[in-house]
């Protein structure tokens, strides 16, 4: 109820219960105000009379000494507060100015602000005088802006305040008459420059009401998805929209005569004096261009400039810089505003790529583009790389760059031929122009000069980000696979200086570089649950999950029955299966004692492995899942202990991951590990190294990541690494593995792959970087 708003019929304002209570505190009792709220704000039968008559100024009595003293004491604070207020207001004002436009629109005094309460609330209002008009704007099947108006109870401050609306798609070539409802989903809000505040323009995209898929003409959906996919590139766009003002022809027919062409049909003077011109007879249509500019500014459209173009009646406005999909939203709204402005001036706005035949320039939508790496030091090389990538997919780009564009891209009039691709510095006859400053500064942006004036900005920018993203992904994946990075730590029982020296020496002689190292104390390990996250699935099965929540594959169940002589389903039915925590309670022993019993079990006789980190052992007549875990955890969280870690890396082509684990680290059982491995050396020389006892399978001296993926998960856990900044993490993202999937996989779940459910970590074990990335992509694809 605290955040809920309802419309007060007496004022027309949408307010919260708290605001309602404050407003009527002197008129009604608290119970009446509550009834008023709960009874859909129906007015109470009577008003409450004030209990105390307001005192007149002349009736004021002298203040008691205590109150006067308190007041005197408070005055310095009040003055200090008053003095600080201007600074606070200035700071707040500055914050307001710096506010991201996507956060929403500012409220308008005298009008309710927030979520639209809908038709139900409108029905209860006595008058709509304080309502807000929202002009919903969308694109039809042919990318032509359409609009209609809705009355709302409040001025929206953010997109989520707006309602999903609908329209007749059969009238816009987006649906059949028998199933014509198309939904309008709000995507961006602008001020309405025609009606003025508090009214708004709403940029919406279209979705089929019957299957909630993008409607015909909704190219925004795919563009938005790809902008999200390649968000880490931080793409910026700026579009130069050229347009031609035309003399209206017959109603319903295409206008063919540009504004400024002679009425007798003869051509005006050749192009030359019209570009960026001023004066009668050359700057034709300036009032329209200026009014459009002003209207866009009032609306909040990111319009950054205008100028007259090379043909009479031809102008240009620039939208941007914009980030991601917002470029399409702002361009669409700018086009809509232009159509509304031309209504008033009695002219037609054409975005035909060749509005007039003959020796005249066409009209384009030159698209400026950059990514974070293009804008950074060394970005010029990235620009060249992207240009080369564009040259390999010319056909795909051109088909997304507008209809009838071949009439404009002829190789003449500052264009490159549509069938030719070239790029160059300061070359306006190239497909891609690289600004001179970009070459000089070694960073910047590129301008794709091919899009026609009538292009769909969503399709253009979608195609640009796809080509760029795929090009950059190849480099990111290659970089992530080229260098192996692992997480190594000395276990608590072996944290001695001689062991540290041994680990450093062994890593160095195998060409492994230590990037960072340090100690993590038991208190931190316990408090932040680092060991529980580290052992992920093992810990969950031992502590949090009940046996009934575990999935035991059919094959594993058969192996269980063969080994123990009883069906898995039977022991489950009889309640003989426990996790480690519950098993210790059942047997009335400590978790350490349970761990000792578990260590005595023999593989193939009294203990079985169901999967990665998933063991079941028979202890004193019951079956215990991962009974070793709690005692193992205790070794990491015991007071006064710690681990000592090393963040390491090495060239993938110099040392295979399997050799890093098998030869450098050594197998799980240190007694059988290679003699030159770390684990066997610690096992063999334990007294010399200062250990209190000889290592065993559990306390085997040193841990190291089992795969590049597991290494990423461990770095994120122990060192709080960022997936998006990690080399292998970026390679996974570039391989079309989502951030959510990476985080889910870090818990070592069972995944459906190649005919069964398997441990994610087991599937990745000992794979080199490139193979690990390929396997990850295959698993992700199989899960879709």
From TrEMBL:
Start and end residues of each GS beta-grasp domain: 132-213
Primary residence: cytoplasm
Region (Disordered): 36-113
Alphabetical keyword list: ATP-binding, Cytoplasm, Ligase, Nucleotide-binding
The reaction(s) this protein catalyses: L-glutamate + NH4(+) + ATP = L-glutamine + ADP + phosphate + H(+)
Coiled-coil annotated residue ranges, if any: none
Cell compartments where the protein resides: Cytoplasm
GO biological process assignments: glutamine biosynthetic process
Membrane among keywords: no
One GO MF term: glutamine synthetase activity
Biased composition (Basic and acidic residues): 54-88
Entry superkingdom: Eukaryota
Occurrences of domain GS catalytic (ranges): 219-581
Any one of the GO CC terms: cytoplasm
InterPro entries tied to this protein: Gln_synt_N, Gln_synt_N_sf, Gln_synth/guanido_kin_cat_dom, Gln_synth_cat_dom, Gln_synth_gly_rich_site, Gln_synth_N_conserv_site, Glutamine_Synthetase, NDK-like_dom_sf
Alphabetized PROSITE patterns for the sequence: GLNA_1, GLNA_ATP, GS_BETA_GRASP, GS_CATALYTIC
Enzyme Commission (EC) number: 6.3.1.2
Top class in the EC scheme: ligase
SUPFAM superfamilies membership: Glutamine synthetase, N-terminal domain, Glutamine synthetase/guanido kinase, Nucleoside diphosphate kinase, NDK
Protein family (similarity comment): Belongs to the glutamine synthetase family.
Name this polypeptide is given: Glutamine synthetase
Organism: Polarella glacialis (Dinoflagellate)
Lineage, highest ranks first: Eukaryota, Sar, Alveolata, Dinophyceae, Suessiales
